[in-house]
Amino acid sequence: MIEIEDILDISEEFVFISVQKKHTNEWKKGQYFIIRYGDNLSGEVVFPVEIRGKVYFGICKDSEVYKYISDRKGFENIEGPCGKPLDMSRFKNPLGVSKGKGIFPILSVLEDIRIYNIGNSINMDLIRIRGLSDINILKKIIEEIGCDVILTAGDNELSEYISNMNLGCEVYACVETPILDGTGLCIICRVYINGEMKLNCVDGPWFPAKFVDWEGLRNKEVSKGCLKG
Amino acid sequence: MPKRIRYLDRNKEPFIPPQERKKSFKEYALGYSVNLAVDEAGRCLFCKDAEKRCIKGCPIHVDIPGFIKKILEGDLVGAYKKIIETDIFPSVCGRVCPQERQCEGACILYYDTVRGRKNKGLPVSIGALEKFVGDFIRISGIEIEEIPEPPTGKRVAIIGAGPAGLGCAYELALRGHEVHVYEALPKIGGVMTYGIPSARLSKEILDYEYERFRRLGVKFFFGKVVGRTLSLRELINKYDAVFIATGYGRGRLGLKGDNLKGVYSAIEVLMRVNLFGNRPDLGEKTVIVGGGFTAIDAAITSLRLGVETHVVYRRTRETSSARQEEWDHIMEEGAIVHWLTQPVEILGDNGRVKGIKCIKMELTEPDSSGRPKPVPVPNSEHTIECDSVIFAIGQDPNPVSYEDVPEIKRDKWGGIIVDEKYRTSANGVFAGGDVINGGDTVVRALAQGREAGKFIHEYLTES
Q1: Weakly modelled stretches of chain A, pLDDT under 50
Q2: Alpha-carbon distance B296 to B61, whole Å?
Q3: Pick from B251, B260, B280: which is nearest to A219 by CB?
Q4: What is the ipTM, given to two decimal places?
C-alpha cells in the first residue's frame, strides 16, 4: 500500500494528494501517472503538479479513487510517468482552457495564472484559476492579453470547439480516451492524428487539435471501469 | 516379461461439459487424479534415446522420462524437482504449451522421430502429467526448497516480468545475484496474466509462483515503465547487467473501418477481463479475426461473456498456430469458425460496427513461412453481420524501454538483435523472449530467459 503523505483541499470539487515515491518526481511536462487501487487494480489517470517544490496529483472528490483513498489513506500502486512530454519551448505566451478536472493536465504544464476554467474559479493561496462563464469570451481575452498557443483539456467537445474557433494561434488538446495499461499494449486508446493511428497512452495525451479525428473519438466506447485519460 | 505397449488407451483429462463451462471463467480442464496420473505414467516406454525424442521436442528440454518415472514411484516431490531443473513453471506449461507439436508430437507411441515415421498409437499425455505434478505441489502446500548460492555482490536489472524475464530472474537469483525486476503492469506474468483467460490458466497459479520468486529474494518493482518512469541508461549505469524481456507489446490493427465503435484488439478485451475485471461492450455477436492462440483466448472470453462468437481465419485449421484441441473446445462451446476467410473491410452504421466484409481464400504453393499461401477466390465476397470485431492478428515490438539507447541494434521490425549468447550490441545489456524472436510460445520465452540467465552469469563472473 502506498500511503498518502499530504492532502490539500483546494475546492468543493477537487483535492491534491502527494505520496512519497521517488519516481513521481521524475516527470516531464505533459506526462501523466496511473493510480491503481482496489482488488481489481482499477486505475485513475492523474497529472502531476508542482506546488511549493512538491509533487501533487489532483483528483475529483466525487471519483471512486477518492472514496477509496479516503477510507484507506492510500492505494496499491502508482505507475508512470507515462505518455510523451509536451515541448513548450517554442511558445512564449501560452494560455490554458479547461473544463472539470482538465485543470490538472494544464496545471501540469502551465502556470495557474494562465488558466481559465469553464465554470468556477479557484482562488486560494496555492492556485488561482479564473472562471470562464462563456467560451466565446475567449477571443476577447486573447485580444487583451495575447497568446501564441492554447492548451485545452477536460473535455473532447470543448477541445474540438476551441480548435474550430480560428483564434489565430495553435491549439494543443489533452485528448480524452480510455486508457488501460499505459504502455501501448491494448490500443484501446487509439486516436487518429492526421489520418495516422496513434496511441494516446504512449504517443499522447497532447496532440495538435486541428489534426485530431474528433468524430472518431466521439465513437469511442467509455464503459464503466475504463480509465479516462 | 516384455512390457505391454499401451498404444491407444491414453487417459483423457476430465473437462467440465461445454455448455456448463462456458457460463464461467472457472478452469474447465480439471486435471488428473492421482490414479489417472499414475496410470498414464505407466504408458511411458522410458526410451533410452529420449533426448532424441520427447526431450528434444520440448523447447526447454525437460527430462520427461525422468519425471514420469518419479510419478510411478510415488515420489511427486522428486518429479517436481526433476521438472524444475529446466522448466520452472510446470503448472503453467502443462496447461498452455502446444504439446502435440512439441514433446507429445515426438513421443514414440505416436511418432518415431529417429526413423521419421508415424506410429500407431496416441502419445503419452505429457502435458497433463506435468500439470498434475505442478498442481499437486502447489495445492498440497509442500514447500520446495530452492536455495540460492551465496551472494555474489552482482546486481542485475530485468525489464519485464513475463515468461522470459521470470526465467532469467530465477536462473540469476539461484546463482546468488541480486535481481530486480521492473514491470509496467501491476502483476507478474506478462501474457500469462493479462492474455490467457483464467478458464485456461487459473490466476492462483501465478500468485503462487510470485511467492516462489519472493522467497528466492527477487525484488519486483511494479508500475515502472522503463523508458518512462526510469531510463534504460539509468539501469545500465546502476546495475552490472540488464536483461530486456519486454515482449512484443504494441497492438496493431490495419483494416478499413477499424476506427468504428465496437472494434477491439484482442489484447484489450483480454486485459480488461483478465487484469482489470471489466467487461467490453461486444454486443450480441462478435467476429474475431485471426487463427492463433490469442484468437482462441479471445473466443474463450467472448463465449463466457455470453456473446455469439465467430472466428474468421484466412488459412485452415491444420495450418493454424493454435492447438487443435483448443479449436475443438471453442467449437464445442458454440463458436463458429470460418476457415479460409479473409476480412476485407469493417462495415459501420452511425459510427458503430454492423458487419464485416470478407472474402473466401484458397491455398496455393507454400510461401516464405513454408505454409501454403492463401489467395482470394474471385467473386466470393460476403458479409457477416456483427456488433463488434476483435483483432487477434499479432503485434509489433514496443521499443519504449530501449529507444533511448541507440547503440542497441534493432531489426527491421523494431525488435532487438542479439548474438548466440543473448548479448545486444550494448555492453552488459542482454535481451530474450518475444522482443528478439517476434512472438512465440510461453515455453520458448521461458527457455530463452533461463538460457540468457546462464550467459549473464558467465558475463558477471568473468568480468
Answers
A1: 223-229
A2: 26
A3: B260
A4: 0.75
A:199-228 residues touching chain B, CB 8 A cutoff: 199, 202, 213, 215-216, 218-221, 223-226
Residue with cell 492474455: B195
Can you tell me the distance from the alpha carbon of B449 to that of B167, in angstroms, rounded to the nearest whole number?
5
Question: C-alpha B55: how far from its chain's center?
Answer: 19
Report in angstroms the alpha-carbon separations of B88 from B172, B187, B200, B209, B221. 13, 18, 19, 9, 21
The pTM assigned to this predicted structure is: 0.87
Smallest CA–CA distance, residue B217 to chain A, in Å, is: 20
Q: How far is CA A29 from the centre of its chain?
A: 11
Tens of pLDDT, residues B220-244: 998 788 887 788 999 999 999 999 9
CB atoms within 10 A of CB A52: 8
Residue B211, C-beta contacts closer than 8 angstroms, at least 6 positions apart: none
In degrees, to the nearest 5, what angle opens at C-alpha B219 toward C-alphas B217 and B225? Answer: 160
Q: Which residues contact B139 (CB under 8 A, 6 or more apart)?
A: none
Query: d(Cα B229, Cα A45) in Å, to the nearest integer?
Result: 15
What SS3 string covers A168-201?
Answer: CCEEEEECCCEECCCCCCCCCCEEEECCEEEEHH
Q: Provide the pLDDT for residue A221.
A: 54
Nearest to A157 by CA among A205, A209, A115: A209
